[in-house]
Design a protein that fits this description.
The protein folds into 2 domains: 1-73, no CATH class; 84-151, no CATH class. The chain has 4 helices and 5 strands, in the order ββαββααβα. The longest helix has 18 residues, at 93-110. By secondary structure, it is of the alpha+beta class.
């Protein structure tokens, strides 16, 4: 277990897959973010879910699906998937995504301990329900706000 906010996952795999692809993921204490990019169906979403699962398994004292793992036990885990549509509230995917990110920023602002390196925030396909130009601008804005908050 790491003593400072960081991740070192070698041979990380998704435990529900019969023939999983393994990934090496490193996020050091000097880095505040990690971007995984690649082609469609390249395994990015599976890798992000595996990171979240590894973090949850650490908290429950379960086997971490990796050949080697050194993970800081973040106090908070936020996972944003690629379809956040909420039909019960009449929200489109885009509206729901904006609402969820505003809630995240609000929570990080109100609870400084959450923002100060004690949160693992995983975002899959950020703002994918809008145009690439709007998505880029919104993503930069969100990441700038997260950086200001120390996340």
């Amino acid at each position: 277990m790491a003593s400072t906010p960081s991740l070192l996952l070698q041979g990380l795999f998704h435990p529900l897959l019969a023939n999983p692809v393994t990934n090496d993921i490193t996020l050091s204490t000097t880095e505040h973010g990690l971007i995984i990019s690649g082609p469609n169906t390249g395994g990015k979403s599976v890798a992000l879910k595996a990171i979240a699962i590894a973090h949850l398994f650490l908290h429950f004292g379960l086997f971490i699906p990796a050949t080697h793992a050194c993970i800081y036990p973040f106090d908070h885990l936020y996972f944003f998937g690629n379809d956040q549509q909420d039909l019960s509230q009449g929200l489109s995917s885009f509206s729901a995504e904006v609402k969820n990110y505003l809630h995240l920023l609000s929570e990080l602002t109100l609870l400084p301990s959450v923002a100060a390196g004690n949160s693992l925030i995983i975002i899959d396909e950020i703002f994918s329900s809008t145009s690439s130009e709007e998505a880029s601008a919104l993503a930069i804005s969100l990441f700038s706000e997260l950086k200001k908050l120390g996340s």
